[in-house]
Fold Patatin-like phospholipase family protein.
Amino acid sequence: MARIGLALGGGGIVGSAHIGVLSALEEAGIQIDCIAGCSAGAIVAALYAYGYSPKEMMQIVPKISKRYLDYDSSTFLKKLINRNTQVLGLVKGKKLRNLIAELTNGAKIADVKMPIALLGVDLKQARQVIFTAQSLANCREEDTISDIALADAVQASFSIPVLFKPVIYKERVLVDGGLMNNCPIATAKSMGADKVIAVDLIFAEPTSKPFSSLLSILMRTISINLFVQEKQLMRDADLVLRPELHSIGLLDFTKMQTCMEAGYECARQQMKEIKEIIAN
């Protein structure tokens, strides 16, 4: 029987659409054999692989709000006084990391209930890093990290450069895996998946909205870069799901419920195609 892999891409708050996709797949009786995630997709992948059901995640994830963006105000104040103070990111990322650690009881990535792989990037080596305890085909040993806490791997995977501080781990400087690969389709295949369903959440249509802050320019720049990148990446998927979430910003916490509903409807509408791909 074909092994089904799920590749969950990044996209900020719209990543909560992944939960709706998982809900629709579970409702249809489709079993996922392995899961790979990047950035926002890493959060959902980690919770699912640990053992949370889509229904449980629908209760947990909407509780994440702006209060989990722990801006590094003290460092900025020190910078005003001492120019030698280093500012590595606007947000520490520790509050969100600690939430994941609490929800997973401090589990290591090897402790989860199903095969999982999360993506990060090592800035020092300019190389993709895969957090996994699985044996991966066509992947060098030095490119994988298997002895890391699940929450630390998730934090590294969602640490968008400049917005979040990098994660320092054993002399590595780790940031968001989307810098090099925002949707880990090839990784899911390396885990042994015969068929890979990818969830693409990146859109970059023309906009009339003004760019009124440094953050808005940064978010738009990231979206454009990822949109161009994913045109190539998606060719390797057996099926791509694209929930209609064009107008939702990367940090619009108020739209989580909308995103989950969109993910569910997208997967439900393409369920016939999903089943045909799996059967064939």
